[in-house]
Write a structure and sequence with these properties.
The complex is a heterodimer of chains A (about 350) and B (about 425).
Chain A lengths: L1 H26 L3 H9 L2 H26 L7 H19 L5 H29 L4 H24 L13 E2 L9 H5 L1 E2 L1 H19 L1 H11 L1 H6 L4 H28 L13 H11 L4 H21 L9 H4 L2 H13 L18
Antiparallel strand pairs in A: 1-2
Chain B lengths: L1 H8 L9 H16 L8 H8 L3 H29 L14 H9 L6 H26 L7 H19 L6 H34 L3 H24 L32 H20 L1 H11 L1 H6 L4 H28 L9 H11 L4 H25 L5 H14 L1 H9 L21
Helix pairs in contact in B: 2-3, 4-5, 4-16, 5-15, 6-10, 6-13, 6-14, 6-15, 7-8, 7-9, 7-13, 7-14, 8-9, 8-13, 10-11, 10-15, 14-15, 14-16
The chains are: A mainly alpha (about 350), B mainly alpha (about 425).
Chain lengths: ~350, ~425
């Protein structure tokens, strides 16, 4: 409950801050405040939704895995693997098929690659009882090492050339709704997928038998076992699901936003998987809360890009780029004590195999 | 429980307890921690690896390394099928994995320049490997050695540039400036690591995520500070001006002439390894650190303030990384330049390969130093991307993470850790 209160307080605080900014800008028309308020428009909302995609999908995946008792700290690695695969496949196909087909093939391959990597993680942690945190770090570092290596092999550079991307879908009629219309209904397909996946995940987790199994597997695996459900199978399914979700997220980042793979430094994923983990902790393992948190972080990031362009502010870009990362740290400090599932992190031995 | 506690206090090499005992200790720690004072996401994780017996740890590290090399060979071979080349000489592949590993592991030892390169990488990895290992022993994951090294290095460079006009030259200057620089690096690295430590202790913020976020913050902060205030006007890249000549760590031995390697830095690194080992094994603080890593509840019971211990062990860990940053600045760049290599991440692999034992850091850092030097050879001589080392870095951790895999494997060979333990063949180390 405490977490939800913190969460509600945070949202209310953000709303009040934005409102105060508007009032302030109206009463005292200081140049840079006016310029900042000017940034809060429909296209910022749209950008925030687009930037939410990788974070929110990673968070959804993380919820399923951790609820089932497997802490998947390798989400960042899954995002890197899928972002790279989507670009590599779209690039390989671009000459021979239509651009849209190439992009969608890349999308499918990305989900497959991420799911396979998640399957490896599942086998390592569930079958071979690896330590979940270390195995998760390994998944991240393997992807972080492999993607630039493979880029170098394919493109002779850690960055790829531009590839065909997923084009926006415009929902006829709905797009004419003021404010919300252009922000939501002229969006990338992955944004629609996200807006669909969030409520569906909530429903599956809270209203279906599978969701009950997932929660029981993380809270009291013994009880689930006694009830005749195979705990391992539930955990495998949940971890694979985190791979599918992260795959969509990584492809959404690569094909829905950037249009190329960037493998230098922390790669183009740049911590979004870690931010996704923070998002679901902040949302207290609730898919809707996790989405809201992702949207908050993505909104900060979108605003950060804008702020860099406000000449009245004149802040160094490298300073503004820190804001989302600092926000993550502040949020973690505020919601640090989340109640993780009882059996999360523990290996479960059914005793009958 | 009492047995496990006394084991935890035993000398490092001597705690050759059975796998069954150590696993039980790890599990006990997990359950205890759940309702203890410092709930953690990572407690069980660290303790499992920390408590493996010494012999088992060596076996797992060696096996994990060989497995990584094997997987790496397959990857290299497959990459050779994709890449374009004039003659695909090895079974249709452009890359011959055997040749790749020759250049990766043997070539670095041929010639003074190559050996100096190996030593340079090894020295740098000693500091970050040690940094990660110390945190690990306390049950903490310090993924932020990179950021601590960056800020420690930056602070060192700026401090040296600041005091340069006041400092004497020559040998006297070196005697004054080098310890001063190391101190600055340690203080700033330590303070920067104290942040996630305090956040973990007092706000229960998971240190894996906070340290990774702080890596991004450190990189941006360094870029901001240099580009805004301390930019070298002569240079196109974002860097400070050069540090004073007297503060540069140069190769003293003629054999290494011209290399970015200093015997002094090597001695410092080895000295820190020995010092850390001594502190962990023989002091009250070290005892508290190890007990907390093994079994937080027991440490708490014994009167250790868990919150202060988290902060102090993270600070020590960060200070070691900061010293690494100082050495990087004085030995390699002679200034601070943005785009510091991923020494902190390599440090994670070094520490894990070393079984998080300070003494193990020396061979692990050397092994990794050889590979990093060799990666330049494979790129230069064979055209295999040097990023291969990044892949191996991850694979090693993946394999070390699954000791159960090797335990299963070992059952089918006469050499495994279970070979002399007839009763353990049924995998009696499970918690069922």
């Amino acid at each position: 409950m405490r977490d939800r209160n913190v969460y509600v307080a945070g949202a209310a605080g953000a709303a009040v801050a934005v409102l105060a900014l508007f009032v302030f800008a109206f009463v005292f028309p200081v140049d840079w405040v006016v310029a900042l308020v000017d940034q809060l428009d429909t296209s910022l909302l749209s950008a925030a939704l687009r930037l939410s995609v990788p974070i929110a999908f990673a968070a959804l995946g993380g919820i399923f895995a951790e609820k089932s008792g497997v802490i998947n700290i390798g989400l960042e690695g899954l995002l890197i693997a899928s972002a790279f695969t989507s670009i590599a496949v779209a690039w390989a196909l671009q000459g021979s098929v239509a651009p849209t087909t190439a992009a969608w093939a890349g999308f499918g391959a990305a989900v497959l690659a991420s799911t396979l990597l998640a399957a490896l993680f599942a086998v390592v942690t569930i079958r071979y009882e690896a330590d979940q945190i270390i195995a998760g770090l390994a998944v991240w570092l393997v992807a972080l090492g492999f993607a630039p290596f493979a880029s170098q092999i394919i493109w002779d550079s850690v960055n790829s050339p531009a590839v065909p991307t997923l084009n926006n879908w415009v929902a006829p009629g709905l797009v004419d709704i003021p404010v919300l219309g252009p922000a939501v209904f002229d969006s990338n397909p992955t944004v629609y997928l996200m807006l669909l996946a969030v409520p569906v995940s909530w429903y599956v987790l809270n209203r279906t038998a599978f969701g009950r199994w997932v929660r029981a597997s993380g809270e009291n695996p013994k009880a689930l076992d006694t009830a005749g459900v195979n705990v391992r199978r539930v955990r495998y399914a949940s971890v694979l699901l985190s791979g599918v979700f992260s795959g969509i997220g990584g492809a959404g980042l690569a094909l829905g936003q950037v249009g190329q793979f960037i493998g230098s430094g922390q790669t183009m994923v740049a911590g979004r998987g870690w931010i996704g983990i923070t998002a679901y902790l902040m949302g207290n393992y609730n898919p809707i809360g996790a989405f809201a948190s992702s949207f908050l972080f993505a909104g900060l990031n979108a605003l950060q890009f804008r702020v860099q362009q406000i000449s009245e502010l004149n802040i160094a870009p490298s300073l503004v780029q820190m804001v989302p990362f600092v926000a993550v740290i502040v949020v973690l400090a505020l919601v640090g004590k989340t109640r993780i599932p009882d059996a999360a992190g523990d290996h479960y031995e059914s005793g009958d195999d | 429980m009492t047995d496990d506690q006394s084991d935890a206090g035993g000398k490092d090499g001597a705690d050759d307890q059975s796998a069954a005992g150590s696993e039980a200790a790890a599990d006990a720690a997990t359950t205890e921690v759940d309702d203890g004072d410092i709930p953690s996401w990572s407690e069980s994780a660290a303790s499992k690896i920390v408590t493996a017996s010494a012999k088992e740890r060596v076996f797992i590290s060696v096996a994990a390394f060989l497995a990584s090399v094997l997987v790496g060979s397959v990857l290299v071979y497959l990459s050779g099928l994709v890449v374009d080349c004039t003659s695909a000489g090895f079974l249709g592949s452009c890359y011959n994995p055997f040749l790749v590993y020759y250049f990766l592991f043997v070539d670095p030892f041929i010639g003074g320049f190559n050996v100096a390169l190996v030593m340079k990488e090894t020295v740098l990895l000693l500091f970050t490997g040690l940094s990660v290992a110390v945190a690990f022993r306390a049950g903490l994951f310090n993924i932020g050695s990179q950021g601590q090294l960056v800020l420690g290095g930056l602070a060192t460079a700026l401090a040296l540039i600041f005091v340069a006009p006041l400092a004497p030259g020559g040998v006297l200057g070196t005697l004054v400036l080098v310890p001063f620089a190391l101190l600055v690096g340690a203080v700033f690295g330590g303070l920067y690591a104290a942040i996630p430590g305090a956040l973990k202790a007092y706000a229960e913020a998971n240190e894996v995520i906070t340290t990774i976020m702080l890596n991004f913050v450190a990189t941006n902060l360094a870029f901001f500070l240099i580009s805004t205030y301390y930019q070298d006007p002569e240079s196109g890249s974002v860097q400070t001006v050069a540090i004073p000549e007297a503060a540069r760590l140069k190769p003293i031995v003629p054999f290494f002439e011209g290399a970015q390697f200093s015997v002094l830095a090597l001695l410092l690194g080895v000295g820190l390894v020995a010092g850390t080992f001594y502190v962990l094994a023989n002091t009250a603080f070290g005892y508290d650190v190890r007990t907390s890593g093994l079994q937080a509840a027991a440490a708490d019971y014994a009167g250790v303030d868990p919150k202060r211990l988290v902060v102090s062990s993270m600070t020590l860990s960060g200070a070691l990384a900061g010293v690494g940053g100082a050495v990087y600045v004085m030995m390699v760049m002679a200034r601070y330049r943005t785009g510091v290599p991923a020494l902190g991440f390599d440090g994670i692999t070094v520490s894990i390969l070393a079984g998080n034992n300070p003494l193990g850091v020396i061979p692990a850092a050397l092994l990794f130093g050889v590979m990093k030097a060799g990666s330049l050879s494979i790129d230069f001589s064979l055209g295999v991307p040097k990023q291969l080392v990044g892949v191996l870095r991850g694979l090693v951790i993946l394999f070390v993470a699954m000791p159960e895999f090797f335990r299963l494997l070992a059952r089918y060979t006469p050499y495994g850790p279970d070979a002399d333990r007839a009763v353990a063949t049924d995998g009696g180390d499970d918690d069922a």
